[in-house]
Amino acid sequence: MDSFTTHEYPEKIHVRRRGWDTDGDELEEQMRTGIFWRGIRPRPAVRTQPHSASLRTLTTILQRPAVSSFALAAIVLVLLADPAAKASQYVELDYNLTLSGHARNSVFLELFDDRPATTANFLSYVNNTSVAHGSFTGSFMHRLARNFVIQGGGYYPSFVQEPAPLNVSLDPNAVIDLDGNLATANPTVNNESGLAPARSNTRGTIAMALINGQPNSANNQWFVNLGDNHASLDSLGFTVFGQVAGDGMAMFDAFNTLSIANLNPDTNDDGTRDPGPFFNPNASLDSNNLPTDGVPYLNGTNQDILVVINQAKQVDYLGPNLTTAVPAGGLVFSTRDVFIDTGTQFTGTGPLTIAAGRNLGIREGVSLGRDLSVHGTLAPGNQIGSITVQNYTQSFDGRLNIQIASATPSGQQYADTQYDRVMATGSAALAGELSVSFMPTYAPAAGNSFTILTAGLILGTFDTFDLPNLPLGDVWNISKTTTAFNLKIVYADFDHDGKVDMSDYILWRNTKGGSVTPGSGADADGNGFVDDADFAIWRANFGNVRGTQSGSGSGSLVAGGVPEPATALLMATGAIVMGSVRRRRG
Ligand SMILES: [Ca+2]
Ligand SMILES: [Ca+2]
Ligand SMILES: [Ca+2]
Ligand SMILES: [Ca+2]
Asked: What does the pLDDT read at residue 299?
């Protein structure tokens, strides 16, 4: 009956559109009123450039952690003594799509320790760094059964060319293979669905897919239950081994609204797609005669984009319903990268420290209410966000990652800010690196200004700057007051050679008194005249440069990018392009 050749589910008997929850959630309100809901073709932000600087992998600072043994002993004691500490493990999945309004491209999964074999198996794919295409990093969500499940873990996106009219298909041989040897099958896990406590396939839980209904056949494919599927799945050995943490279901609910395509290849070359993992021909069509069970994709104006996990990694996640005691000597995060989410609780008054080489993400809007010391990397926001601490200390081995989506509130809408910001209610002692990157939708322009850090008193400054390249003629202006650290984009490189120097002065002198196209030539203030005001701007920016990021040429910038309307639920931050997709059933 079911022609899925690999992983399958029992067919849903009733395919119906669920009513949306009415808990006032902003996203769901967008869904209710948004163009996705009305069935009108969305106009998401689709970009043609490769991954932006904002998604580049964090480099590890290979320096000895500046962490005292006292502090390390403190964290061990705390974790052992904390009765609320769970033995669950957590995984962060960074997707290539961003949920507008929530500043989100990451979700966190909680993996239960009471399903030890299944959890260990899942983590083996998360932590596998020895084999290309042997981990969930770079894989994609290859199946959306609308309102039922979204499934991944099986494949990485690899396209095969097909004769017209199909043109392009996904390669079912591009499987995630744990040991990198396709001749040896991925190890299977005996199902743990019967262990205590009982775990049910309810909305928001994650479970392993099975092969041909065999309960002990789980290996690499996993799925999120988008609805309550306990009645159809619990009795068949689909082991629930975790759940989506925090408010991560907002992301999967948005994926549930994506378009669905048949991308099975036409292996017998008869012009129609054949059975395979990238479409379920037995599923119902929706009221618009579109498929409800196949490969999900973001329907772009020029390209369609698959749902790809840019990075999967095991992290320490401090989220809702978790309380962490901080001893007077402080708590040092040194074991793994850490994410602090909305709703987590800290007790005690000691400081938090991110150790060298570790990344600390803090959810937008979070106020730590304590001191923060940075030896590793601090990244505000799930993506874009502002965070509040008491005293902020960044050491020589520390780095602050700032992402910029827009300069003005009228631009791309995010949770609480248009660019990452740190607000210290006490002092900020600065050293180390400031690293800035642009979101793909941001079009840098002269006059844009970013107050990336405020404090009651700022001491010192960053030692090094990692800044993206700007349009020709523009340079970075870095300034600091006692209470604010500011970045501004200024037009002062009149000859467009990348720096503000004497040759720009000569150009100004030779054209002084003339009229030019506003913002061109030596017209730094953009009023169309070359005069003393432009000289003053040149002088104030003498020595400033266009960008400092190695390998970040002008081609990596978005030229003339336009912020998308807030009604676009998802936008691409890294394009995996399908080209033109055949949307009819093959
Ligand atoms: Ca065929
Ligand atoms: Ca950020
Ligand atoms: Ca110049
Ligand atoms: Ca002027």
From this structure: 84
Query: Ion ligand 1 — residues with CB under 5 Å?
Result: 266, 268, 270, 272, 274
Output the CA 563–ligand 4 centroid distance in Å: 28
How do residues 515-527 score in pLDDT, each as one tens digit?
A: 999 999 999 999 9
Ion ligand 2: residue ranges with CB closer than 5 A: 379-381, 403, 420
Distance 285 CA to ligand 2 centre (A): 39
How far apart are the CA of 3 and the centre of ligand 1, in A? 13
What would the pLDDT profile of 384-403 be if each residue is shown by its tens digit? 899 999 999 999 999 999 99
| DSSP per position, 482-539 | SSEEEEEEEE--TT-SSB-SHHHHHHHHHHTT-B-STTSTT-TTSSSB-SHHHHHHHH
- Give helix 532-540 / helix 502-511 axis angle, nearest 10°: 180
CB 368 within 8 A of CB 346: yes
Tell which residue, 585, 586, 577, 583, has the closest CA to residue 267: 586
Any idea where the domains of the chain sit in the sequence? 501-543
Share of the chain above pLDDT 70, in %: 77
Please state the pTM of the whole predicted model: 0.80
